[in-house]
Design a protein that fits this description.
By secondary structure, the protein is mainly alpha-helical. Helix content is about 75%, strand content about 5%. The protein has a two-stranded antiparallel ribbon. Helix 1 runs antiparallel to helix 2 and helix 3 packs antiparallel against helix 6. The longest helix has 29 residues, at about 105-130. It starts with a strand and ends with a helix. About 15% of the residues are buried.
Length: about 130
């Protein structure tokens, strides 16, 4: 692991973040998008954010780490971790950490990580095929 800025991943992070904001504000009344798609995309946001600043040796390990991190955050919601850490309802950190546990959210994180894994696998296969 080495610190290295990537403009490509940083711009992707900004784009995905804007999509997340759009989902949370403009598309908030479309149940499927708000309830599920946002959670699928958030793991991609974490992936591109990390790749913006860190050169990672193993994308698979990064994706697994993001999945575990997502599960830990969701598990923390089960135990009301935001309130126990002293964050007020409605505060930014309360919203970021979340406040309601859901098995469906965990499934959405897993689906997002699976999409990431498949996309990177396909991208790596294409890169290797073009070299030979």
């Amino acid at each position: 692991m080495k610190f290295k800025f990537s403009l490509k991943y940083f711009l992707l992070t900004l784009l995905i973040f804007l999509v997340e904001v759009l989902i949370a504000t403009v598309l908030k009344n479309i149940f499927f998008i708000r309830a599920y798609l946002g959670d699928v995309i958030v793991v991609m946001l974490l992936y591109t954010l990390i790749k913006s600043f860190i050169e990672v040796n193993s994308n698979q390990k990064l994706i697994l780490g993001i999945l575990i991190f997502s599960f830990l955050i969701e598990g923390g919601q089960y135990f009301n971790i935001a309130e126990k850490l002293g964050f007020r309802k409605g505060s930014l950190m309360y919203i970021v950490i979340g406040n309601s546990f859901s098995w469906i959210d965990m499934l959405c994180y897993a689906v997002g990580c699976l999409f990431l894994f498949i996309f990177i696998r396909m991208k790596t296969s294409k890169s290797l095929a073009s070299i030979s």
